[in-house]
Amino acid sequence: MQWQRRLMALLLMSGLFAEAEASPASATASWHLRVVTEQGDTLVDAAAPQGSRWCIQWQHSVEHFTVLDCYRNAGGIMQLERSHQPDFAAGLGHIYGRGEQVSDGEGGYWINAINEPVANNRYVLRVGSTAVNHRVMWPDGEHPTVSLSERAAGQRVTIALSLR
User: Fold this and answer.
1) What is the 3-state secondary structure (H, E, C) of 55-67?
2) Three-state DSSP state, 89
3) What is each CA distance from 44 to 32, 111, 147, in whole angstroms?
4) Hey, how many other C-beta atoms are within 10 angstroms of the C-beta on 71?
């Protein structure tokens, strides 16, 4: 019985020390939005704490209006939160059961409450030409807008939310 108490005390103590060792590392880790080319060049590396939001903004290649696909860090999970589309042009539109379509008051619409997790917190985008001008923008303005097309037109990039 005495040895069992000592063993339990030892296990509890080692667990406390292990937790103490993990705390400083986790306290310094922070969420970042990163956009990286296939060659490993970093185009975006921005703090993206829980609750932060960003959008991929681009010009529709046929209609030439601006489309927004907006994401958020929802507890460490990249989620497609909503999308803005000024028209029902080619490749665009609302899919029944995937979010809620509401008017933007200017002839276009928002698809709100999509809240769809992005697999593995990352996806690949083929960056369009400067006419399409794929860019990363932050709706609250906490970071400057970054044109991916100016730096990587025609290339595949990975857009990822990760701890660093």
Assistant:
1) EEEEECCCCCCEE
2) coil
3) 9, 26, 10
4) 24
Q: Taking the model in full, what pTM does it have?
A: 0.77
Q: Which two tokens stand for residue 131?
A: 């006419």
Burial of 134 (0-12, 13-18, 19+ CB in 10 A): buried
Q: List pLDDT tens digits, range 92-125.
A: 454 556 788 888 898 788 889 999 999 999 999 9
Q: Which of 25, 133, 33, 125 is nearest to 73 (CA)?
A: 33
Q: How many residues does the chain have?
A: 164
Nearest partner of 65 among 86, 92, 88, judged by Cα? 86
3-state secondary structure of 25: helix
**From edge to edge, which strands make up the β-sheet containing 122-126?**
42-47, 31-37, 156-163, 122-126
